Write a sequence for this structure.
């Protein structure tokens, strides 16, 4: 099997395992994440729906335009946060998950809604292939931390982020401890797929990919970036996930909690 197919099989296994374990008949409100691994979760949900193994009242809350389409196409019932502010469980993908289940998300530029939905959920379960399982954030995922920014402020925010110093910008950091590996962040405005200007999120904003090297203190980095005026959301999800499922190359899946 090609390595691409191994990765897709691994994603599918992680997604199927998480849905089978967690989306039982007593789940009434389900948050649905975004990305290519979530497509497999939706496939499993569709199968369970057709077998009558889901709650007849199940409502799915999307985290992006993509996830909305997946829910509708699968024949699942679409809901919104206004009517369903208490979500039983959310299943979502991740770009990287560290040993404490902190995660980087936003590879698909959907991390604002993903974080809102995760925060409204009693439980957040992550699904990914083996390449995303890390000891430390930034080790495997070298594209950087996605930071959604309002277009009006993007130049000002770029400057503020570039000026952050890994040792003196962070509460509790000392001369001997750095919140992240690089001395200063490297900030890249994410281009649109057709390269004609920056990518624009579902919320009409831009996204920076902020390269920091290894992230030693995810919670502090998340907070410091989020505090910059003009930043809408940061793709570090610290202390949010309860469990992460990873599909492996050998056709099995394992879970960390
Ligand atoms: C989108 C996300 C995705 O969940 C994350 O990028 C993982 O995507 P994939 O399952 O395609 O690897 O955070 O904003």
């Amino acid at each position: 099997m090609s390595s691409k197919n191994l990765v897709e099989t691994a994603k599918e296994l992680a997604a199927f395992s998480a849905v089978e374990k967690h989306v039982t008949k007593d789940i009434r409100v389900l948050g649905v994440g975004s990305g290519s691994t979530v497509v497999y979760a939706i496939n499993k949900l569709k199968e369970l729906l057709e077998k009558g193994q889901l709650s007849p009242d199940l409502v799915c809350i999307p985290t992006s335009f993509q996830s909305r389409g997946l829910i509708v196409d699968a024949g699942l019932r679409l809901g919104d946060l206004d009517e369903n502010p208490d979500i039983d469980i959310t299943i979502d993908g991740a770009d990287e998950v560290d040993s404490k289940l902190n995660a980087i998300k936003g590879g698909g530029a959907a991390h604002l809604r993903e974080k809102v939905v995760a925060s409204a959920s009693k439980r957040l379960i992550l699904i990914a292939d083996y390449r995303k399982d890390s000891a430390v954030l930034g080790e495997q995922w070298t594209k950087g931390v996605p930071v959604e920014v309002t277009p009006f402020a993007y130049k000002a925010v770029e400057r503020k982020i570039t000026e952050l110093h890994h040792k003196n910008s962070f509460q509790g950091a000392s001369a001997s401890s750095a919140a992240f590996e690089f001395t200063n962040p490297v900030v890249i405005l994410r281009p649109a797929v057709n390269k004609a200007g920056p990518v624009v999120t579902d919320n009409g904003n831009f996204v920076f990919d902020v390269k920091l090297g290894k992230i030693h203190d995810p919670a502090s980095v998340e907070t410091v970036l989020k505090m910059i005026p003009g930043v809408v959301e940061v793709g570090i999800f610290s202390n949010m996930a309860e469990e992460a499922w990873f599909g492996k190359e050998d056709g099995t899946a394992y879970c960390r909690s």
Summary: Residues 33-37, 92-95, 105-111, 114 surround ribulose-5-phosphate (CB under 6 Å).
